[in-house]
Design a protein that fits this description.
Helices cover 24% and strands 21% of the residues. With 781 residues, it is α+β, with helices and mostly antiparallel strands. Strand 12 and strand 13 (356-362) form a beta hairpin.
Length: 781
C-alpha cells in the first residue's frame, strides 16, 4: 500500500553486517531532511547514535587523516590534509520543501539569527582553508550537545568561572532555572575575559564540520554573551588551524542577546576531530559566556571501536521526519487507508488560527464505544515547540497499523481490547512557528504558546482550590464531591482567558469516558504525576499527593522503567534536576507548582488518570535523531497503554439488567470516586490487592463487595446489581400518574361510571345496584 502511495522503492543498501537499510515508503522523505552528501556516511550513520553516558572502553588513539600515497608524514604534520571532493548523494525523488536546519537566506534570517558567509565572498577568496570542495553545500546534523549525545568528557575549556559554569554547561538551550548555583548554571563562562579563552568539542572521530550555533548565558539576573569569535580545528588538539577569510582569520558574528540562537556556517566544511571556539568580543559589562551546538557529519570509520559498540539501530519501517500541518494530515490519511478497519480520523475542534485539531482513533470498532472496553488517549503538542512528542505519536500510529497488519499478537490484543485515541498536535499554531525556525534555531520558547499567547498546559480550571478549601471548611456551607467537580461559571463565560484549544479538549474529555491518558511534553526526561499544584500557600515546591498516589506512582514508573534512559543512573541530567532518586518519576508539585494543569483537571473533573511524560532533553531534535528517540520511547508508549487494563472493571445494572449511568464507584480507604459511563460500565485503576468496593446510584440501594486485583495483566471483573429503594418506587408510581396522589374511592367511582355506561343505566339506578358502604358512628356508652 505504501509503495503505491509513495512511488517505487529506491533503497540504500548498507554494508554494515548488523542489518540492511532499505528506504521505507513511509520513510522516503526522511532521507531528504537528514541525508548527508556523502552516501557512505549516510549508509553507516543515519541510524547510528551514541548513548548519553560514556561507558568504559579501550584507550582511544589520536585520530589523524590518512595520508596520500607517497606523502611523508612530516610534510602534513602542522596542517590538516585537504580531503577529496565528497560524493554527491543520490537525488531523492521528492525534494524537501525547505531546509529544516535553518531558514533560507532572506526569509526571517535576522529574526532567526542565521549568519553565514555569502557564496560570492567565498568565491572571491584567493586562499582556501583545507576542507571539502566548495561547489557542494552540505547540511550536516548537530553533533548532539543539546541532546547529550556529546558527553561531558568531550567538552573542554581554557578556564571556567566555577564548576556550575564549566564546559559541560555550554550546551545549546541548557537552562539554569531559578537557582543558579555552583552545580547547575546556564552556560560555559570563562574564568577571565581575554582573547585567549576557548571552548572545545572532541568529536572522537574525523568529522566534517559545517557550522556553529551559539547562544548567550541563560540567566534571570545577568546579561552575558559573546558577540564575535574565531573557529579553529585540529586532529590532535595540539596543532590548530584557524578558519580563514582570505589571507586572514575569519571573525564570525556572534549574538546580540542571550536567548536567540545564531547560526554561522563555515565558508567550506572542515575535516578534523576537534573544533574550538575562540571568543573575540563580548557584551559590554558582561562576561565571556556561551552555549553552543556544532554541526558536523562524522566520517565513516569501521575501525572505530568506540562508535561501533554504541551504535543505535532501528528496524522499524517508519517515516522518520518532521511533519508540518499538511504533511501530518497526509500521513494520517495514509495510515487510515492502510488500516481502514481499525482507524478513524476526526477532529475535536479548531485552533485560534482555524487549524483543525485532528485525532486518530484506533480500535477494532472505530467510531463507537464498546461496553466494557476502556478508552485511552495520548496528547502531544500542548506546547507547540515541544515537537518530539508530536513525531513520536505519528510514529506510533504507523507502528500500530503496520504491526496489526503483520499479526503481531501483542498489538492485536491491544487494539481489540482498547479504544485508543491519539491527538498529535494540540497547538498546531505554535508548532507552525517553531517549524519555521527549525530544529536548532527556534530557541527554548518559540512556538510554545498558542497564537493568542496562552500556555495550554496551565489553562484549565483550578479545581484543586475548590476541593481543598471545602475540605478545610469541612464542607461548610456546602459539600464539594471528591470527584466530578463542576467547572466554575466564570471559566465558561466567553470573556474568560481560555484558549479555543483548551475548550476543545475539555469538551472532548467530557464526551468520551477516558480511563487513562498521557500528555507528551519535552525538555526533560521524567514522568510527572499529579497533583501539579502545591496545597500550601506561598510555596513553589511541595509534595502534594492525590488519594491515588500509589496508583500514579506505578503508572509513572511503568513508563520510566521501560524507557531506555529515564532510569539509567549513569546518564547526565538534562538541565538542573536529577530525578534518579525516584526512578525517573516526580510528583508535579514537588518539581514546580502549576495551577490549572491538565493532569489535575482530568483527575478532579473526569474519571481519567492523566500524567505528563517528558520524552527528551531536546524539545525539537534534528530529524537524524528521530530513529534513536523512537527506540528510546517505543516500548514505553506501548507498556503505558497496557496499564489501562490494570485494576477492576465491570457493569452496574438494575434488576431488569439495564445499565445504570452515572453510578458512583467508591473504594474503601481511597477518598476519590469514579462514575459509570452512559451504558453502566466502569473501570477503576488500582494496584494489586484486595479492595472493598461500593456501587451506589440515586434511587438505588448501595451494594458492597470485595474485589481482588491480581498481578497478572487484565482488570478484575467486579459487577454490581442494584435494587431500587422504596422511595424510588413511590416516585416512579407518582410520575406514572402525573405526580397526583392515588385516591381509592375516586378510582371506585370511575369504575362504577364505566359499568353504568356499558349497561345504559342512570346514575341513581347504578347507585341502587351498587350502594355506597355506610360508615357507622360509634354508639355512646
Amino acid at each position: 500500500m505504501f509503495s503505491k502511495l509513495w512511488g517505487p522503492d529506491k533503497g540504500v543498501q548498507s554494508t554494515c553486517p548488523a542489518w540492511t537499510v532499505s528506504a521505507s515508503p513511509l520513510a522516503r522523505t526522511t532521507a531528504q531532511g537528514a541525508a548527508l552528501e556523502d552516501p557512505d556516511y549516510y549508509v553507516q550513520e543515519v541510524w547510528s547514535r551514541e548513548p548519553y553516558e560514556e561507558r568504559p572502553g579501550p584507550e582511544l588513539e589520536p585520530f589523524s587523516p590518512p595520508l596520500p600515497e607517497g606523502t611523508e608524514e612530516k610534510e602534513l604534520e602542522p596542517h590538516l590534509r585537504e580531503p577529496g571532493p565528497p560524493k554527491r548523494a543520490t537525488k531523492p525523488k521528492k525534494a524537501p520543501k525547505r531546509e529544516r536546519l535553518a531558514p533560507p537566506p532572506g526569509k526571517n534570517s535576522n529574526r532567526k539569527g542565521r549568519r553565514s558567509k555569502g557564496p560570492e565572498k567565498a568565491a572571491s577568496d584567493d586562499h582556501h582553508i583545507p576542507g571539502a570542495q566548495e561547489d557542494v553545500k552540505e547540511s550536516c546534523p548537530p553533533l548532539g550537545l543539546e541532546t547529550l549525545k556529546i558527553t561531558d568528557f568531550q567538552l573542554h575549556a581554557s578556564t571556567t568561572k566555577r564548576y556550575g559554569l564549566g564546559a559541560h554547561r555550554g550546551r545549546l538551550n541548557i537552562q539554569a532555572g531559578i537557582n543558579e548555583n555552583d552545580f547547575y548554571d546556564g552556560a560555559w563562562c570563562a574564568g577571565r575575559n581575554d582573547l585567549h579563552q576557548w571552548i572545545e568539542v572532541d568529536a572522537r572521530r574525523l568529522t566534517r564540520f559545517t557550522g556553529v550555533i551559539t547562544q548567550g548565558r541563560n540567566s534571570l539576573w545577568l546579561s552575558d554573551w559573546v558577540t564575535s569569535y574565531k573557529v579553529m580545528v585540529s586532529n590532535d588538539s595540539h596543532t590548530w588551524v584557524t578558519v580563514k577569510n582570505g589571507s586572514g582569520d575569519m571573525i564570525f558574528e556572534g549574538n546580540s542577546e542571550k536567548e536567540i540562537p545564531v547560526l554561522n556556517e563555515l565558508p567550506v566544511p572542515m575535516v578534523a576531530r576537534y573544533i574550538r571556539i575562540n571568543p573575540q568580543s563580548w557584551f559590554d559589562n558582561g562576561n565571556i559566556c556561551m552555549r553552543l551546538e556544532i554541526l558536523g557529519c562524522p566520517l565513516p570509520d569501521p575501525n572505530n571501536y568506540y562508535h561501533r559498540r554504541n551504535e543505535m539501530t532501528t528496524t522499524d519501517d517508519l517515516d522518520f521526519k518532521h511533519h508540518n500541518y499538511k504533511e501530518m494530515r497526509q500521513l494520517m490519511k495514509i495510515v487510515n487507508e492502510m488500516c481502514p478497519n481499525i482507524t478513524r480520523i476526526y477532529n475535536i475542534g479548531k485552533s485560534h488560527q482555524g487549524l483543525k485539531l485532528y485525532a486518530v482513533e484506533i480500535s477494532d470498532h472505530p467510531g463507537e464505544h464498546e461496553v466494557g472496553e476502556p478508552e485511552f488517549h495520548y496528547i502531544a503538542g500542548a506546547h507547540g515547540n515541544e515537537v518530539l512528542g508530536r513525531e513520536l505519536l505519528l510514529l506510533l500510529l504507523q507502528f500500530l497499523c503496520q504491526e496489526y497488519l503483520a499479526r503481531n499478537t501483542r498489538v492485536i490484543r491491544l487494539v481489540e481490547e482498547t479504544r485508543i485515541h491519539i491527538l498529535p498536535s494540540l497547538n498546531p499554531d505554535g508548532y507552525e512557528k517553531a517549524y519555521e525556525g527549525g530544529s536548532e534555531l527556534g530557541g527554548w520558547s518559540l512556538g510554545r504558546w498558542t497564537h493568542d499567547g496562552i500556555d495550554i498546559n496551565n489553562n484549565f480550571p483550578d479545581l484543586n482550590t475548590l476541593l481543598w478549601e471545602a475540605e478545610d471548611r469541612q464542607n461548610i456551607p456546602r459539600k464539594v464531591p471528591n470527584h466530578y467537580i463542576a467547572i466554575p461559571e466564570w471559566f465558561l463565560s466567553e470573556n474568560a482567558t481560555v484558549a479555543m484549544e483548551t475548550r476543545a479538549v475539555i469538551a472532548w474529555m467530557e464526551k468520551i469516558p477516558f480511563v487513562l491518558g498521557g500528555n507528551l511534553q519535552g525538555g526533560e526526561l521524567v514522568v510527572a504525576y499529579p497533583y501539579d499544584m502545591v496545597r500550601s500557600q506561598w510555596k513553589t515546591q511541595e509534595h502534594s499527593p492525590t488519594p491515588d498516589d500509589h496508583v500514579f506512582r506505578w503508572l509513572a514508573y511503568s513508563y520510566a522503567s521501560t524507557h531506555r534512559l529515564m532510569t539509567d543512573a549513569r546518564r547526565r541530567v538534562c538541565h538542573t534536576e536529577d530525578f534518579q532518586k525516584e526512578e525517573g518519576t516526580v510528583n508535579g508539585a514537588s518539581w514546580h507548582t502549576v495551577a490549572g494543569s491538565l493532569n489535575d483537571f482530568s483527575y478532579l473533573h473526569t474519571n481519567c488518570f492523566e500524567l505528563s511524560i517528558y520524552v527528551g532533553c531536546d524539545k525539537y531534535p534534528h530529524e537524524s535523531q528521530l530513529p534513536e528517540e523512537w527506540e528510546n520511547n517505543r516500548e514505553s508508549l506501548i507498556v503505558f497503554m497496557e496499564q489501562v487494563h490494570r485494576g477492576i472493571k465491570g457493569m452496574v445494572r438494575d434488576l431488569h439488567g439495564r445499565g445504570i449511568p452515572n453510578a458512583i464507584i467508591s473504594v474503601e480507604g481511597i477518598n476519590h470516586d469514579i462514575r459509570t459511563a452512559s451504558d453502566g460500565d466502569y473501570w477503576r485503576l488500582l494496584n494489586p490487592g484486595e479492595y472493598v468496593v461500593t456501587a451506589k446510584a440515586e434511587g438505588f440501594t448501595a451494594s458492597t463487595k470485595n474485589c481482588m486485583v491480581g498481578y497478572d495483566m487484565g482488570a478484575t471483573q467486579c459487577d454490581f446489581i442494584l435494587s431500587k429503594t422504596n422511595l424510588a418506587r413511590i416516585r416512579e408510581i407518582m410520575e406514572k400518574f402525573g405526580k397526583q396522589p392515588v385516591s381509592l374511592p375516586t378510582r371506585r367511582l370511575k369504575l362504577r361510571g364505566r359499568k353504568r355506561r356499558q349497561h345504559g343505566l342512570p346514575l341513581s339506578r347504578a347507585l341502587e345496584m351498587h350502594p355506597r358502604p355506610m360508615r357507622m358512628k360509634p354508639t355512646q356508652s
